[in-house]
């Protein structure tokens, strides 16, 4: 199916055209070439020619020249620009020139490693079809590699492909056994650099510190070649990873096929209105594309979303194109290695027409001739969005990318600000290599790997010396007068992982067969594997019968269920004083903001059953699991008592305003901090001075830099949150602005906590306007036009007269009662039944006094909506 014809059909179809929020065609761009001097050696030049590569793009030639000269280099260009050749060419040249030379490739995902191994094998195959004529023995060394294969790679491999996790846990601690490899190390390739941000990036930066230290021990100073999608701060991020000056190449000379990016906003349904599920919308589009024979990939933001997309799409294909229902598959982490390899093979060979994936297939993988990419929800960063959109139309012909919005603030902000999305430069990559909670584990590992000199502590950040003293006091290291040496009784690198806050892993086992079907980290297990939870695997439903906390095993049974579960959690935040890390504080409008260390306590206490597709609630269940604590960084935004009083003077609950403002801030923060929704959290709790405050905190122990970024950019964040709420067309608040729905990306995923009902929009908007210094809301707008009551003026007249005059110009009659003295009932115009009806809807806009209550006294509706929380009560967002 031709892309333009399909897009035209969508924009003209009466059912779909109202969902198309914006449409942008990006024209094709020709290639720009450069000559490489000197040219590659003849065997490599011939191998490239067999692949149809006769000339290099400008950025490829520039990166190769820097690498040849021994300079660290980062090539930062768009999707499908051939970045991999920028490191393949110098690496293979070095291997051809010196039989003892070795090269290390690092990829963040196993799928990407397999893809690049396939390319290397094809490139180095001899003209007669003979494999590995250059005796490189390339191979992937990861958790899926069998023991005998690992042994052969250790003995003979000159081009080793692995990931940061295996480098951390399997290679550095056993460097003596890999002495042959370390003695010849010339290049270290770090692909998809933009992924190494936040907690993961902070860990990887420390792993590379350890790598450089071990390489020096074996007499090598390898050259780093880094590749990345476009980010705002490539120099800063590359130097943090490479540990030295880096040359950045950003002039993209690759051609680009014509592409279309379509912003798709699902319609509002139900009462109160909410957007239709983006998962269902994506499943309908994907089923239609696959039925037409268009190879399509759909990206979800969590494992459960990939499973739901697959389930919904397969069910639709069974109705409209049964022969193609088996030509789609889900792909995500947590599958067994043999399952992932089988899906990858079917995908790379073109056997599959569709795949529902997490971002595991986002990163630089050549998945063939894909015609469409569906992005289910904003991926969390502009860089990730363009990476996912670039999966379509990678080789020739136009590609279609569709960003389907969730009913979440950041998604709706982008739907109403398409120019921001199209023109916005990618966010900065933030990492904090000196995070003491991260550095502590790596110091243990470094001392185990090699005795540590005092001069080497500086490379591990400003906290390293103090942390080493802690290890000395704990009896894990000892000082011999020259070196720090390991004294512990365990293997340090095996005690912590790089990607999660929890080091513990739970095994998922089927009760009848005892078969292992997957694994999950501890933090996720508390949300997804509690008793009575529904675990999705391969589109099938498994009911969790028991969670063994001591053995770290979840026992599940496959059952045909028509619902999934969603965990409910509560958080509390407490700022802590640390003399070594002074608190930052400044004024923001009528309020103050503090940044510093904090303790976040989280507890999963119940779960909700939700029917597939309709998303109807089927009931609730109780969860009894211990609370968890993390020490991290947070900011506390505390409005002044006068600001809260100003909100209360409008007849609104100021705490409602704080909850709504917190939700809006959390929704737009990824646009400024370059973070994902899983990286940060927000809560309304008692602030540092016992007054209510909005907390925004890093979800990663020790902090990852996102709360600090929010502190620095708070004025811009608040302004974007205010505009988001003000421009939302809803009357009283919805999940798209001040609402706090559970994001679809975390339906049973722990990255974002459950957030309850929709707070009061008018209160949130009034508070945000005060904090940003915007013009105060007109009284009429702050009331019924924004949803909810207005204050009654002293003359007792209904304010509706000022909003909706009658055709003859005279004030309209209030549907309940017109003129009356404020604060008193008028029996002639206010009967009890009508008063109850007015309290329920406030359509006249007269405010609390019209319902028969004295001004300022809450109505039953207000009491049911706001509950009886006091200023010290907390609410998870």
Automatic annotation (TrEMBL):
<dbReference type="Pfam" id="PF00270">
    <property type="entry name" value="DEAD"/>
</dbReference>
<dbReference type="InterPro" id="IPR011545">
    <property type="entry name" value="DEAD/DEAH_box_helicase_dom"/>
</dbReference>
<feature type="domain" description="Helicase C-terminal">
    <location>
        <begin position="281"/>
        <end position="434"/>
    </location>
</feature>
<dbReference type="InterPro" id="IPR014001">
    <property type="entry name" value="Helicase_ATP-bd"/>
</dbReference>
<dbReference type="InterPro" id="IPR027417">
    <property type="entry name" value="P-loop_NTPase"/>
</dbReference>
<dbReference type="Pfam" id="PF09369">
    <property type="entry name" value="MZB"/>
</dbReference>
<dbReference type="InterPro" id="IPR001650">
    <property type="entry name" value="Helicase_C-like"/>
</dbReference>
<keyword id="KW-0347">Helicase</keyword>
<feature type="compositionally biased region" description="Basic and acidic residues">
    <location>
        <begin position="792"/>
        <end position="807"/>
    </location>
</feature>
<keyword id="KW-0547">Nucleotide-binding</keyword>
<feature type="compositionally biased region" description="Basic residues">
    <location>
        <begin position="831"/>
        <end position="840"/>
    </location>
</feature>
<dbReference type="GO" id="GO:0004386">
    <property type="term" value="F:helicase activity"/>
</dbReference>
<keyword id="KW-0067">ATP-binding</keyword>
<protein>
    <submittedName>
        <fullName>DEAD/DEAH box helicase</fullName>
    </submittedName>
</protein>
<dbReference type="Pfam" id="PF00271">
    <property type="entry name" value="Helicase_C"/>
</dbReference>
<keyword id="KW-0378">Hydrolase</keyword>
<feature type="compositionally biased region" description="Low complexity">
    <location>
        <begin position="841"/>
        <end position="858"/>
    </location>
</feature>
<feature type="region of interest" description="Disordered">
    <location>
        <begin position="780"/>
        <end position="877"/>
    </location>
</feature>
<feature type="domain" description="Helicase ATP-binding">
    <location>
        <begin position="64"/>
        <end position="249"/>
    </location>
</feature>
<dbReference type="InterPro" id="IPR018973">
    <property type="entry name" value="MZB"/>
</dbReference>
């Amino acid at each position: 199916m031709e892309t333009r014809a399909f897009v035209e059909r969508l924009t003209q179809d009466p059912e779909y055209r109202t969902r198309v929020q914006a449409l942008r065609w990006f024209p094709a761009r020709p290639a720009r070439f450069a000559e490489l001097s000197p040219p590659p050696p003849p065997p490599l030049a011939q191998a490239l020619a067999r692949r149809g590569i006769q000339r290099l793009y400008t950025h490829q030639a520039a990166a190769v020249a820097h690498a040849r000269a021994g300079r660290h280099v980062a090539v930062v260009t768009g999707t499908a620009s051939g970045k991999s050749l920028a490191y393949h060419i110098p690496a293979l040249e070095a291997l051809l020139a010196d039989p003892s030379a070795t090269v290390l490739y690092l990829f963040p995902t196993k799928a990407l490693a397999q893809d690049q191994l396939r390319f290397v094998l094809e490139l180095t195959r001899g003209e007669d079809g003979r494999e590995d004529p250059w005796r490189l023995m390339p191979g992937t060394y990861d958790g899926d590699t069998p023991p005998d294969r690992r042994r052969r790679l250790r003995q003979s491999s000159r081009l080793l492909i692995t990931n940061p996790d295996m480098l951390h846990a399997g290679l550095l601690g056993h460097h003596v056994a890999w002495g042959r490899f370390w003695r010849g190390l010339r290049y270290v390739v770090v692909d998809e650099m933009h992924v190494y941000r936040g907690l993961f990036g902070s860990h990887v930066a420390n792993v590379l510190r350890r790598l450089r230290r071990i390489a020096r021990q074996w007499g090598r100073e390898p050259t780093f070649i880094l590749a990345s999608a476009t980010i705002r701060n490539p120099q800063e991020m590359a130097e943090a990873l490479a540990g030295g000056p880096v040359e950045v190449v950003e002039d993209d000379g690759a051609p680009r096929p014509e592409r279309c990016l379509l912003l798709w906003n699902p319609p509002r349904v139900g009462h109160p209105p909410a957007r239709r599920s983006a998962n269902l919308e994506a499943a309908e589009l994907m089923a239609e594309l696959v039925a037409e024979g268009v190879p399509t990939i759909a990206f979800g933001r969590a494992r459960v979303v990939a499973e739901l997309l697959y389930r919904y799409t397969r069910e639709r294909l069974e109705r409209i194109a049964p022969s193609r229902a088996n030509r789609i598959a889900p792909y995500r982490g947590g599958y067994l290695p043999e399952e992932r390899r089988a899906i990858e093979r079917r995908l790379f060979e073109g056997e599959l027409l569709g795949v529902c994936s997490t971002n595991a297939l986002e990163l630089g993988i050549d998945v063939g001739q894909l015609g469409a990419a569906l992005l289910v929800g904003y991926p969390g960063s502009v860089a990730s969005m363009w990476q996912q959109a670039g999966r379509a139309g990678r080789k020739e012909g136009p590609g279609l990318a569709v960003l389907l919005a969730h009913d979440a603030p950041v998604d709706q902000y982008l739907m109403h600000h398409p120019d921001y999305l199209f023109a916005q430069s990618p966010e900065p990559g933030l990492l904090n290599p000196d995070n003491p909670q991260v550095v502590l584990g790596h110091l243990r590992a470094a001392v185990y790997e090699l005795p540590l000199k005092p001069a080497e502590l500086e490379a591990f950040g400003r906290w390293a010396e103090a942390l080493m003293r802690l290890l000395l006091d704990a009896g894990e290291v000892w000082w011999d007068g020259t070196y720090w040496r390991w004294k512990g009784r365990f293997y340090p690198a095996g005690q912590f992982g790089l990607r999660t806050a929890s080091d513990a892993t739970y095994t998922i086992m089927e009760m009848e067969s005892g078969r292992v079907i997957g694994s999950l980290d501890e933090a996720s297990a508390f949300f997804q594997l509690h008793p009575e939870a529904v675990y999705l695997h391969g589109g099938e439903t498994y009911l969790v019968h028991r969670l063994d906390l001591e053995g770290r095993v979840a026992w599940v049974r496959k059952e045909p269920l028509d619902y999934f579960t969603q965990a409910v959690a509560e958080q509390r935040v407490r700022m802590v004083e640390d003399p070594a890390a002074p608190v930052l504080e400044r004024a923001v409008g009528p309020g103050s903001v503090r940044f510093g260390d904090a303790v976040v306590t989280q507890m999963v206490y119940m779960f909700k059953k939700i029917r597939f597709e309709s998303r109807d609630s089927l009931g609730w269940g109780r969860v009894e699991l211990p609370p968890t604590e993390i020490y991290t960084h947070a900011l506390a935004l505390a409005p002044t008592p006068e600001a809260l009083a100003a909100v209360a003077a409008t007849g609104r609950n100021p705490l409602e305003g704080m909850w709504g403002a917190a939700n809006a801030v959390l929704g737009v923060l990824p646009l400024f901090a370059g973070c994902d929704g899983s990286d940060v959290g927000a809560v309304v709790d008692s602030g540092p001075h016992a007054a209510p405050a909005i907390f925004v905190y890093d979800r990663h122990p020790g902090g990852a830099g996102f709360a600090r970024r929010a502190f620095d950019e708070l004025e811009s964040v608040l302004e974007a949150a205010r505009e988001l709420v003000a421009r939302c067309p809803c009357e009283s608040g919805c999940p798209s602005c001040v609402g706090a729905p559970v994001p679809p990306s975390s339906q049973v995923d722990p990255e974002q906590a459950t957030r309850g009902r929709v707070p009061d929009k008018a209160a949130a908007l009034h508070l945000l306007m005060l904090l940003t210094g915007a013009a105060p809301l007109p009284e009429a707008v702050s009331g019924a036009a924004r949803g909810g009551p207005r204050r009654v003026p002293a003359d007792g007249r209904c304010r509706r007269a000022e909003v909706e005059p009658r055709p003859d110009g005279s004030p309209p009659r209030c549907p309940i009662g017109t003129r009356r003295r404020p604060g008193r009932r008028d029996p002639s115009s206010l009967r009890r039944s009508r008063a109850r009806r007015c309290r329920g809807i406030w359509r006249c806009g007269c405010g609390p006094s019209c319902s028969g209550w004295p001004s300022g006294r809450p109505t039953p509706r207000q009491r049911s909506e706001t509950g009886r929380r006091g200023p010290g009560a907390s609410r998870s967002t």
